[in-house]
Amino acid sequence: RFEAGYVIPSPDIQARLLGVLQNNRRVDALHTAAYSMVAYPWAQVYQQSNQWAIETLAMAAADPSANTRPAAQLWLQQHGYQPTTLRLGLLTRLGARVTAANVAFDDHPDALRFSDRINTVTVDSVFDWLTRSGLGTAATTVR
Questions:
Q1: How far apart are the C-alpha atoms of 59 and 143, rounded to whole Å?
Q2: For residue 92, which of 112, 118, 68, 66 has the smallest C-alpha distance?
Q3: pLDDT on residue 60
Q4: Rounded percentage of the chain residues whose pLDDT exceeds 90
Q5: DSSP character for 129?
Q6: What is the DSSP letter of 136?
Q7: Is 21 helix (H, G, I), strand (E, B) or coil?
Q8: Residue 23 has what pLDDT?
Q9: SS3 65
């Protein structure tokens, strides 16, 4: 089954993003090569694609103050972004870590990880935040 979704950023965010996306240096500024599909949103050890996208959006929206990952993440926190909390038990985490090269949990705070709570950036959390914050339209699903 094919299903996709999109949110249209506000005109102001679109204009700011265009300026960033047309500049390869700025596009690369917040990219981290170490990838984990469950990267912790408030750490800089790993990164995943949804995380890069909203950190880049933060850099564009806060221009020019959010030109580092910590600054972009601070902007996201200050503007109400809330990651998704996944409930993943120890055996699930161990199995994922052993069988997949792109899964790591060591960037998550021990208190969360050891209580089976893994916070990460998901499409759902990004869409909810963009709509709630007024930075984008309501999500549209395409089937």
A1: 32
A2: 118
A3: 95
A4: 78
A5: H
A6: B
A7: helix
A8: 93
A9: coil
